[in-house]
Design a protein that fits this description.
Number of strands: 10
Distance between the termini: 5 Å
Largest sheet: 8 strands, mixed
CATH topology: Rossmann fold
Strand content: 5-15%
Helix content: 40-55%
Strand order of the largest sheet: 3-4-2-5-1-6-7-10
Number of domains: 1
Shape: globular
Number of helices: 12
Structural class: alpha/beta
CATH class: Alpha Beta
Order of helices and strands: EHEHHHEEHHHEHEHEEEHEHH
Length: 331
């Protein structure tokens, strides 16, 4: 199962917007995509669905059609996971809806994690709950790829989400905070991966297949960079120049010199801010690159829409090349 988590423990870099647009562009390019909202803040779901639909999915009673609803029997002690509702966004694109109630299971996930090293059955059921929900839903949706949106932290929910991820894409902004975030992110990913590799063989055969927890690094996406005459503005250029070294050293655990090859092979793509397009996209409930004149994208906006389309098309095709998934290659 090809599952790509978009992860940076530093918030505000445009991670959720990236997942949303990558999902739609992959569908545009002919892939079947399942997006999974594993951020308790549910920003991906809020971006994708209108308030009326969200109100129906988040009633005052049990939220059976959210991700929390799929895992609630396990964490509530009444059974195991149940099949997740897949919210259709298009014929090719489905969404497993997020839920603030996910915050309730953080402590249980944290408690059971070290017990996997002891081979305890419930510990494995809890730790792999997201993976099992996603695997069944991906099979049902006939997905070529899963995209996982997570919150900006290093907590237990994200750890279970990353155990379910075969690959990791890191969105970064050209600023000091993203550099500091990378220094925390890389060692934490390696610790989670190493711990899971130690625990995985201790799972009882009766539990069946377990996630690989590969968390393979795909590269980073430089988000919200600003350009003037095709070059980064001075305010961003300083931090942008330091990102390749920080990524290689922190995420790839390589001894890297202060300079490297140009362009940086670990940089998947650069995505501009597109400030004028995002409000229109949010109002229209569609990706920025799909805006039309009827949505208000007229004049110079149309040039930005086309550039946005080209940027995200190049991004998803490069991700597909690096991860090596293809249309119709469902697992």
């Amino acid at each position: 199962m090809i599952s790509i988590a978009f992860f940076n423990n530093k918030g505000g870099v445009g991670k959720t917007s990236l997942v949303y647009h990558v999902a739609w562009m992959l569908a545009e390019q002919g892939y079947r995509v399942l997006a999974v909202d594993l951020d308790p803040q549910s920003n991906l779901s809020i971006m994708a669905l209108d308030e009326e639909r969200l109100e129906a999915l988040w009633p005052d009673v049990a939220h059976r059609e959210t991700l929390f609803g799929a895992v609630e029997p396990l964490f509530g002690g009444t059974g195991d996971i149940r099949p997740a509702h897949i919210e259709p966004l298009s014929d090719a694109l489905g969404l497993i809806v997020g839920d603030l109630a996910l915050s309730r299971i953080e402590d249980d996930l944290s408690t059971e994690w070290p017990r996997c090293l002891e081979g305890r059955e419930r510990a494995f059921r809890v730790t792999t709950s997201f993976w099992r929900v996603m695997k069944e839903a991906a099979w049902r949706h006939q997905a070529d790829v899963l995209l996982i949106d997570v919150g900006p932290n290093l907590g237990a929910i994200n750890r279970a989400a990353l155990v379910a991820a075969s690959h990791v894409v890191v969105p970064v902004a050209p600023d000091l905070f993203s550099l500091q975030g990378l220094k925390n992110l890389g060692p934490t990913l390696r610790l989670w991966r190493d711990t899971w590799l130690q625990a995985r063989p201790k799972a009882s055969a009766s539990l069946g297949e377990q996630p690989g927890g590969e968390m393979a690094a795909v590269g980073y996406v430089l988000m919200q960079h600003a350009e003037r005459l095709g070059r980064p503005t001075k305010a961003y250029a300083k931090w942008q120049a330091r990102l390749p070294h920080a990524y290689r050293e922190s995420v790839l655990d390589e001894q890297a010199g202060p300079t490297g090859p140009t362009p940086d092979p670990q940089q998947i793509q650069r995505i501009k801010h597109y400030r004028s397009l995002m409000p229109m996209a949010m109002e229209s409930r569609k990706p920025m690159f799909a805006l039309r004149a009827s949505d208000g994208a007229i004049g110079a906006h149309q040039t930005n829409v086309q550039q946005c389309y080209d940027d995200f098309r190049d991004l998803v095709l490069e991700i597909a090349r690096r991860v090596k998934f293809s249309r119709g290659a469902r697992q």
